[in-house]
Amino acid sequence: xxxxxxxxxxxxxxxxxxxxxxxxxxxxxxxxxxxxxxxxxxxxxxxxxxxxxxxxxxxxxxxxxxxxxxxxxxxxxxxxxxxxxxxxxxxxxxxxxxxxxxxxxxxxxxxxxxxxxxxxxxxxxxxxxxxxxxxxxxxxxxxxxxxxxxxxxxxxxxxxxxxxxxxxxxxxxxxxxxxxxxxxxxxxxxxxxxxxxxxxxxxxxxxxxxxxxxxxxxxxxxxxxxxxxxxxxxxxxxxxxxxxxxxxxxxxxxx
Length: 255
Hints:
By secondary structure, the protein is an alpha/beta fold. It has one domain (21-241): Rossmann fold (3-Layer(aba) Sandwich). Helices cover 43% and strands 15% of the residues. A 7-stranded parallel beta sheet has the order 3-2-1-4-5-6-7, sandwiched between helices. α1 packs across α8 (223-234), α3 (75-84) packs parallel to α4 (108-136) and α4 (108-136) runs parallel beside α5 (158-178). It is globular, with a radius of gyration of 17 Å. The chain starts with 20 loop residues before the first strand and ends in a 7-residue tail after the last strand.
């Protein structure tokens, strides 16, 4: 099976987030950038947190979003940025890192930083946003951007796989505890996503071939595939979906 190209123009579903304030972490590049651009196009007022001031400056010029610079590996920075974002209706915990090391060579520093960014920061930012929603007495929705590697082991991804498995479990607990307040929490779990970094990492057919061979749709995901899935879970159309892990994987896990 070869990497089947996506349609020339992926079908773009429209949502209406007019009047809603959305916080997106890690929105400076890649998937987060696509999510930000898509949500702005749907009428949302978006606040983006990223550690790269240059990426944020470019994104703000393109989309008109509000930006905050923070290193989410720091618990203090995560809480500060989430607080400075102000009143938020919808949250996308997208920030994440991947430090690829064989299991026997995985360093404690790499493991700790991966867990800090991919899991702890998601918890802290969501705590700030959820407390604000509860205080205001309004419903909301949270989407944690996870990965299919939360349930599938990958070589050299010990810290990353562990962090995404933890994020899925955090999502379930959040759904149980925040649901009674009218706050839904779900996860989106993509396969390989062809961001510029993803294209470089998976351009070798020797590496990509086996994974594509297990993917019935015959291709990896485009950033828009993920952005639209996130938007759906944020939308009122997903009003009864809570605690779910939505795999955007072309059928990989079904094969």
